[in-house]
């Protein structure tokens, strides 16, 4: 006979009975095949309603702890495969995680966004409105390319900021550009070779290699990637950042852009991936038109992200496909689910449509202009100013500093790290190290602590002496 203490039960009675019986089964007090009291007997012995016992038994049956036989009753199931794990139990396995990034007192190459600059109050307000007004839409599966509302909002943003006229259905939303690179590889075919700028974004090389893509490198001059380098590479797809190259900061002039387009038009299977990752931040003059907007032959795949304009942790990026590739995408890859949540898609659409995003960009452009000027002025007025040269551009969130020193780049970075300062060398980004230019370093000012710039200048000067 099952007997339990029913005094001071603070939860539904059926749930308490269910837990008691389950505990006895798991602990072995009730053996497999053992018959349980009938509902009436259990209820009568404990002064409880039969409905309460029925509910408890039904829950145990649904979870596999108990089974019933017609006209015979309820029996304990064989649950040998089940184990009871105490709540306080923990396990630590021999799993080698990547090393955590080192933390420095002063990080001059940190490309993250200062959290104080994210529009938290506006984002929270819009999120609440979306949750209140779009309950049904939030629970519906998103199309593979993303919700139409956010794609239409992005199309309007591109028309306003970049002079691009695109159909929202050309736009594909994804959780970060790294995910979208994978879609492009599937879209264009894994048999193509890709060309990357040298120096360039090393993670790009790592991603392509994971897909077993053959990668070539093309050198750069003062106007960006060279067409001769492209031709020598023999690649069919080139991945470039013409608006503000990372890490050199070079902006490709219109003449070179047309040359690269001409290269792509020489063969049917050639394409250009145009990465416009921080295009919102141009500080002087009008931006040069995108390759996508001057492409008349559907050769350019345009990519952008909200990592620099809002925050990289949001993981919302997008690509704009030429018409024939957009059709191919929906014919071949529409089985994929959109990787960005509906909550974030609708909130971002509202941020753009209601003008908050434009105001944020204008505010941040002014902030970064002042920040960059203050940093450069501080460097040039310090002792370090006589031992360096600033190589800046009218766009983006970083610039280069050339140090006049006989020390190797590795020696400079190592000495600075010992003093709690990180400053990455341009040479670290060369995909063919033997072609690297020494003594150039990257200063990223999107999340730099202005109050420590003078200290950093003094330290850099001291290690050069």
TrEMBL record:
Keywords from the named record: Aminotransferase, DNA-binding, Pyridoxal phosphate, Transcription, Transcription regulation, Transferase
SUPFAM superfamilies linked: PLP-dependent transferases, Winged helix' DNA-binding domain
HTH gntR-type domain span: 11-79
One example GO MF annotation: DNA binding
Family, per entry: In the C-terminal section; belongs to the class-I pyridoxal-phosphate-dependent aminotransferase family.
Protein name: Aminotransferase class I/II-fold pyridoxal phosphate-dependent enzyme
Lineage: Bacteria, Bacillati, Bacillota, Clostridia, Lachnospirales
């Amino acid at each position: 006979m099952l007997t339990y203490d029913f005094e001071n039960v603070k939860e539904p009675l059926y749930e308490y009975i269910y837990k008691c019986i389950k505990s006895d089964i798991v602990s072995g007090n009730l053996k497999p095949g053992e018959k349980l009291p009938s509902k009436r007997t259990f209820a009568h012995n404990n002064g409880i309603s039969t409905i309460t016992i029925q509910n408890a038994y039904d829950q145990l049956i649904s979870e596999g702890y108990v089974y019933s036989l017609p006209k015979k009753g309820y029996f304990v199931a064989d649950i040998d495969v089940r184990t009871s794990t105490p709540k306080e139990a923990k396990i630590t396995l021999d799993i080698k995680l990547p090393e955590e990034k080192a933390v420095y007192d002063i990080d001059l190459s940190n490309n993250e966004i200062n959290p104080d600059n994210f529009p938290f109050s506006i984002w929270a307000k819009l999120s609440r409105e979306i949750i209140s007004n779009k309950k049904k839409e939030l629970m519906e599966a998103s199309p593979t390319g993303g919700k139409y509302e956010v794609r239409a909002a992005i199309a309007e943003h591109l028309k306003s900021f970049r002079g691009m006229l695109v159909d929202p259905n050309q736009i594909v939303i994804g959780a970060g550009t790294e995910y979208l690179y994978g879609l492009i590889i599937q879209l264009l075919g894994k048999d193509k070779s890709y060309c990357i700028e040298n120096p360039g974004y090393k993670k790009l090389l790592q991603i392509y290699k994971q897909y077993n893509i053959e990668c070539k490198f093309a050198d750069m001059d003062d106007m960006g990637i060279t067409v001769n380098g492209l031709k020598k590479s023999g690649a069919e797809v080139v991945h470039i950042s013409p608006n503000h190259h990372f890490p050199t900061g070079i902006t490709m002039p219109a003449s070179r852009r047309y040359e690269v387009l001409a290269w792509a038009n020489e063969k049917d299977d050639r394409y250009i991936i145009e990465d416009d990752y921080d295009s919102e931040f141009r500080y002087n003059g009008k931006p040069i038109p995108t390759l996508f907007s001057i492409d008349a032959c559907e050769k350019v795949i345009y990519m952008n992200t909200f990592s620099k304009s809002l925050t990289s942790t949001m993981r919302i990026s997008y690509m704009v496909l030429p018409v024939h590739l957009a059709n191919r995408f929906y014919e071949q890859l529409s089985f994929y689910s959109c990787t960005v949540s509906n909550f974030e898609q609708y909130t971002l659409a509202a941020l753009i449509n209601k003008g908050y995003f434009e105001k944020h960009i204008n505010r941040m452009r002014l902030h970064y202009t002042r920040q960059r000027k203050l940093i450069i002025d501080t460097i040039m007025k310090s002792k370090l100013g006589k031992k360096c040269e600033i190589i800046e551009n009218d766009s983006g969130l970083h610039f280069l500093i050339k140090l006049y020193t006989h020390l190797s780049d590795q020696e400079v970075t190592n000495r600075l790290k010992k003093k709690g300062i990180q400053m990455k060398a341009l040479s670290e980004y060369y995909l063919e190290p033997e072609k690297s230019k020494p003594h150039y370093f990257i200063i990223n000012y999107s999340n730099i602590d202005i109050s420590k710039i003078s200290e950093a200048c003094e330290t850099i000067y001291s290690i050069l002496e």
